[in-house]
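Module 6 notes. Inverse folding takes a fixed backbone as the condition and produces residue identities as the prediction. Think of it as a translation problem where the source language is geometry and the target language is the twenty amino acids. Below is one complete input and output pair. Work through it position by position during the lab.
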């Protein structure tokens, strides 16, 4: 599979040999035999075969509907491959140049998916060790996607949805629960949706923005099938400021993105910022960059560009003028171009920690620049601490004002020029003493697994960690973790979600079942954490929120 400029999934397939033998079958079961199998039946079952798939497997299945307007529906019954090393690639078309629908790995059952071109290509790649049971999937050729989900009629290969439903497959109920007691079901120029009363937001107008009412609950703010949803993405960035969530860039498995969107809680809808023109500066498309808010806007730094290079640019977006500006162009010191790093505001300065350069070498320096006057970069000297300071990619960093420290958790830790492993360590960098330390405490309880490309935010006195990539070779094939953990920055102790939901939940505290990594998390009003997008074998565009109990953080007015 060509490198398309997004997250670096292992193994990286830079060249795929054409398979020389092609067989055309109409049977209901097609297994892996290191050839391309063409399926023309209206439905059938695809599997890599009985038992474990072979090490070094390179197998293809091409489902051909016979007409370009036909849709191909694929639903998985079983999925188990070596996380991060063995993949099932699914394309909307008949070649590796076709749009990529999913890159599946691990042991979590994927969501159903649809190809719209009349053809769907599945390609199973495995390396030469540790084969697992593989996959079993059923396919069906349809005139309309998901047969319009039972909420519409199929006409000329397009779903015409019943009143109250929308989406390409009529899968979206426009006003869930009729918008509850805090909203009304209204129609606008784009789509029927819930219009919430002041102080509430979400798809069903059930999240109270102010106060602690209904704490300890998860909320669906926006699913990914609406016409008003955020376009799907991973490796993007986000901040919450001026009562809105702002999202820039990312990767959708096929393209690196340069778009800017905002979701204002009062408006309850995603809107794209489109004020640019040929004479307005705008950052190039990028993924794996970092973002943080400051003053009347926010900064972004670094990232992987469409050509695979790593950026060392610092940009500022002014929310009042809706303009970008490029900063520190004349700085004598220029930081490494990196991706997978963090950008953290500390009073009137920005700190860049970690990241990987174009040679996939991890950066061992901390860079700093004034956020008020961003003219000159400097390297932060490290005066002591742990024998091996953390050299990380895909970690999280938060600033804790009470201890005047940066807290860094997780990520991939480089052990040599060739190898890295996933970290489960929490580090503290004291900004006054310039001293690194590894944190251990009484009654020490770590999160279940080391993780990377998770999210970490500060809520009250807790570092709140959600999701991440948690693969442990030969032990755990969960690529996409769905757990949430809380690290108390005073007591130096980890607590899991059940500790708070058991004692403090006032409603439905069910976490999202499907894990993810490469997402973003932002905090609104001190006690609401929004999770945006990410990757779980398929790129996501949904938004969910968790309103933490008062035992974690209180409501506060934020900007």
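Target side of the pair, the amino acids:
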């Amino acid at each position: 599979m060509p490198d398309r400029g997004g997250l670096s999934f292992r193994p990286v397939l830079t060249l795929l040999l054409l398979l020389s033998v092609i067989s055309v079958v109409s049977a209901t079961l097609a297994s892996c035999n290191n050839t391309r199998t063409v399926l023309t039946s209206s439905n059938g079952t695809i599997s890599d075969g009985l038992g474990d798939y072979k090490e070094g497997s390179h197998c293809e299945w091409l489902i051909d509907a016979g007409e370009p307007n036909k849709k191909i529906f694929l639903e998985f019954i079983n999925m188990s491959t070596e996380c991060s090393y063995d993949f099932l690639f699914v394309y909307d078309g008949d070649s590796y140049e076709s749009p990529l629908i999913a890159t599946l790995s691990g042991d979590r059952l994927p969501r159903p998916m649809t190809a719209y071109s009349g053809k769907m290509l599945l390609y199973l790649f495995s390396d030469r060790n540790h084969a697992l049971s593989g996959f079993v999937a059923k396919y069906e050729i349809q005139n309309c996607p998901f047969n319009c989900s039972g909420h519409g009629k199929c006409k000329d290969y397009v779903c015409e949805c019943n009143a109250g439903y929308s989406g390409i497959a009529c899968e979206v109920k426009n006003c869930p629960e009729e918008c509850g007691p805090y909203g009304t079901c209204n129609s606008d120029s784009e789509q029927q949706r819930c219009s919430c009363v002041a102080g509430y937001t979400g798809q069903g107008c059930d999240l109270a923005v102010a106060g602690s009412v209904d704490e300890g609950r998860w909320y669906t703010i926006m699913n990914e099938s609406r016409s008003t949803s955020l376009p799907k993405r991973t490796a993007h960035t986000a901040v919450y400021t001026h009562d809105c969530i702002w999202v820039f860039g990312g990767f959708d498995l096929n393209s690196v993105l340069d778009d800017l969107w905002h979701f204002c809680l009062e408006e309850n809808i995603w809107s794209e910022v489109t004020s640019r023109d040929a004479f307005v500066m705008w950052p190039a498309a990028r993924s794996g960059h970092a973002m943080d808010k400051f003053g009347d806007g926010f900064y972004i730094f670094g990232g992987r560009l469409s050509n695979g290079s790593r950026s060392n640019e610092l940009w500022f977006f002014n929310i009042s003028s809706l303009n970008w500006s490029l900063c520190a162009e004349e700085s004598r010191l220029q930081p490494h171009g990196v991706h997978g790093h963090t950008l953290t505001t500390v009073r009137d300065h920005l700190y860049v920690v970690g990241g990987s350069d174009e040679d996939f070498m991890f950066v061992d320096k901390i860079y700093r620049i004034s956020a008020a006057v961003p003219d000159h970069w400097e390297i932060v000297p490290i005066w002591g601490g742990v024998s091996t300071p953390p050299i990380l990619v895909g970690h999280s960093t938060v600033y804790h004002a009470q201890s005047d420290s940066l807290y860094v958790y997780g990520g991939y830790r480089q052990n040599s020029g060739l190898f890295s492993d996933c970290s489960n360590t929490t580090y503290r960098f004291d900004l006054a003493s310039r001293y690194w330390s590894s944190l251990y405490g009484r009654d020490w309880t770590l999160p279940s697994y080391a993780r990377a490309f998770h999210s970490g935010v500060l809520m009250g006195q807790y570092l709140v960690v959600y999701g991440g990539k948690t693969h442990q070779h030969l032990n755990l094939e969960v690529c996409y973790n769905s757990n949430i953990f809380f690290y108390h920055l005073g007591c130096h102790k980890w607590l899991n979600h059940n500790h708070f939901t058991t004692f403090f939940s006032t409603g439905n505290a069910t976490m999202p079942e499907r894990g993810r990594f490469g997402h973003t998390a932002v905090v609104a009003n001190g006690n609401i954490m929004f999770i945006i997008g990410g990757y779980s074998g398929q790129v996501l565009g949904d938004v969910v929120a968790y309103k933490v109990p008062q035992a974690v953080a209180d409501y506060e007015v934020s900007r």
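Reference fact for the lab report: Residues 497-504 form the longest helix (8 residues).
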